[in-house]
Amino acid sequence: MKRSVLVVSAGFLLVAVGSARAATEITIATVNNPDMVTMQQLTPEFQKAYPDITLKWVVLPENELRQKVTLDIASNAGSFDVATVGTYEVPIWAKNGWLEPLTPIFAKNAALAKSYDLNDVLTPVRKGLSYNNQLFALPFYAESSMTYYRKDLFAAAGLKMPVKPTWSQIEGFAAKLHKPSAGQYGICLRGLPGWGENMAVFATVVNTFGGRWYDTSWNAKVNSPEWKSAMNFYVNMIKKYGPPGVTSNGFTENLTLMSQGKCGMWIDATVAAGFLVDGSQSKIVNTVGFANAPTGPGTPRGSNWLWSWSLTIPKSTKKEDAAFKFITWATSKEYIALVAKTKGSWASVPPGTRTSTYNNPEYKKAAGAFAPIVLASIKRADPTKSTRDPVPYVGVQFVGIPEFQALGTQVGQYLAGALSGQQSVDSALEQAQIAAAKVAVDGGYKK
Predict the structure, then answer these.
(1) How many Å apart are CA 211 and CA 196, to the nearest integer?
(2) Given 23, 80, 154, 390, which is the most exposed site by the fewest CB atoms within 10 A?
(3) Angle between the N-to-C axes of helices 225-241 and 198-208, in degrees from 0 to 180, rounded to the nearest 10
């Protein structure tokens, strides 16, 4: 906005023209998942609402994003004004004083707080993004895990998917659906190394097979019979009935394979459901089926993970006000409705965050095939009771300690080694046990 100031002094007429006020630019670090790509595409809509704020995007693959954001925030470098983080990072980083608490910012913005309606955000999700009764992030989308399958392939093979399958049943189905010569694989699962990649899925297998990372005295339990059974099962099933090159396949790659009709089944994040019923992105819109995540022989606990990709404001930012305007816009009821309008379907909106979404008749109509399973899975997932035997940590698909980011990725590399045939399961678990035991000692957990 240009401002002209007319100044009259000592008989002289002076005209001073102020330069246009520079817009505030905020830098947003986010993952290259489809929902976030949509968020980036809607930048013009945000700037209509906030013309004095411009957005600079840094969009990265999941593993790379985590490394860059963690390093930047931990070192107080200030490269990012908004960061996309998960349920794992928020309580740990909040404890370290790396994040701006959002509760007092909402308190200072009563009108915005009322329209935003925090009480509408699902309680398990809100709790997962809090520390010491303060909220530190807003959920962009939240998820649990579930089973996707091809109804047409099941029908042709004379198979019926239970609403609550077991891993044993899943393996049996995979064997009958696997036809690699036709480009059809029995099952797709994550093999790409990373604590948030292959370990996210595999950790739920460990849980439901009765395993745990540590006992209550912080003794590592990674070489237990339960872990061995879980890893042998996971590795053998993928080797027999999965696609080639599995160690390169994370969430995004498997989503592509499933949407192209190449997977008989896929167990992964509930957020994928909306993309699999979107005709512009999926070839299996009319044939995809939905079921709960499988349970194993040990316990039903821990078979559903709980995760939220969320937007937070690093302490290092000098642009808190602009950053807060963005994160409340991108996680609001209005944004969800905007995505529905833009995409032409309520099934495509960011899921798992708000009660109002699941109560919306349009969403129920568009997402009725999967929405009840997603909501029940999120509510069922309990990070405080994710294992058969007691543990000293919180988390379903992760251990809620700072060291787990490195430990989980390290063990994910050992798992990938077993999947690729570079080492045996026994060797992978032996190395993983040593790594887990070292973390317990070096981190001061084991007395």
Answers:
(1) 18
(2) 390
(3) 130
Residue with more model confidence, 292 or 63: 292
What is the DSSP track for 328-381?
Answer: HHHTSHHHHHHHHHHHT-GGGSPPSSBHHHHH-HHHHHHHTTTHHHHHHHHHH-
Domain coordinates of the chain in residue numbers?
28-141+307-358, 145-303+401-442
For residue 200, the SS3 value is helix
CATH architecture of 28-141+307-358: 3-Layer(aba) Sandwich (3.40)
Q: What does the alpha-carbon distance between residue 106 and residue 185 come to, in Å, rounded to a whole number?
A: 49
Q: Which residues contact 181 (CB under 8 A, 6 or more apart)?
A: none
How much is the pLDDT for 22?
A: 74
Mean pLDDT for the stretch of residues 360-369: 96
DSSP 276: H
Q: What is the rounded distance in angstroms from the CA atom of residue 335 to the CA atom of residue 350?
A: 9
| Residue range 222-262, pLDDT digits in tens | 999 999 999 999 999 999 999 999 999 999 999 999 999 99
**Could you tell me the pTM of the whole model?**
0.88
Instruction: Tell me, rounded to whole angstroms, the distance of Cα 339 from its chain centroid.
Output: 19
Note whether 28-141+307-358 and 145-303+401-442 share their fold.
yes
Is the pLDDT at 407 greater than 60? The verdict is yes
Q: Which residue has the higher pLDDT, 109 or 166?
A: 166
